[in-house]
Amino acid sequence: MIDNKKVLFSGMQATGTITLGNYLGALKNWVTLSDEYECFYSVVDLHSITVRQDPAELRKRARNLLTLYIAAGLDPKKNCIYYQSHVSGHAELGWILDCFTYMGELNRMTQFKDKSAKHADNINAGLYTYPVLMAADILLFQADVVPVGKDQLQHLEITRDIAERFNNIYGDVFTIPEPYLGKAGAKIMSLQDPTKKMSKSDENANASIFLLDDTDTIIRKFKRAVTDSEACIRYCDEQPGIHNLIDIYSACTSKTPEEIVAEFEGKGYGDFKLAVGETVANTLKPVQDRFYELQSEKAYIDGIIKENAEKANYYATKTLRKVQKKVGFPERIR
Ligand code: ATP
Ligand code: LTN
Fold it and tell me: What integer is the mean pLDDT of 228-234?
């Protein structure tokens, strides 16, 4: 608890331009939750280097991502928006938690299996211990709740296991976090293969809507979206393409799938795809406009980066000192 509010932590990697999946599955919920909780939203750049990055490009993407957090509606005066690399406690707690995590647990992580298949030439130890660093992110702030997309639930589970293990040995040190999944949009699928999740690292640019895609591009991508052969709009597992488009429309409009099916009764795929495309474009437009405005407000953003890194460091250090004491590191002499 901070000032009688429960704590929320979440983060995104600066590995590419964020997609509609990241927005509907995570960022949009972050904004909704931001009044209720004391929030920490990190650009998790330490996680990004588990995959080889171009340094200049990484720096630029991280800045854009941080700016997008604000453009999407997170007030940086109320929410602590910061770069993970500016708070050394993440790495320090990560190391300690490495020593409380079993290789058997890490061997089961599906993201590790997927990413090592994708980057077979660079299966590094960081990629393997990635979930422990993620656990450190969350536990460092004693987070009660962690809003994520469905693909991250396994990492939340291991975070809880590590925290419980640590607490069993040393007493109540860590808050046990709960995942938060939004109602709609928890798993947005690729527009080209609706059995795969929409991902910012997909090689096919038509498979993903990027947050900064312009209106024409968005509509074109939806027009080309792979759908099914039944030519009617139903919400069922046999029509994964239409299912995905209904989920997207639902997440943008707050209409239920039933209402959407009723709205498009008797209409064809073409009409529906256009409606989804226009709705997504209208949803993203204000975020894009604000992003481009903010990009030119360098001093303002720099100020936020500095202030929030200090705030994050303050809370991180509090937990870290407690943990260091528990495991038996010597007291600091002041
Ligand atoms: P990559 O594609 O590079 O593996 P990613 O987009 O899956 O990256 P992150 O940037 O780390 O991964 O994800 C940030 C947040 O967005 C996480 O909470 C994740 O669960 C959520 N997310 C990612 N993809 C989707 C999706 N297709 N649908 C819903 N939520 C998603
Ligand atoms: N692993 C997440 C990104 C991430 C995160 C976190 C999310 C890193 N640390 C802490 C929530 C809380 C991902 O790949 N989507």
Answer: 80
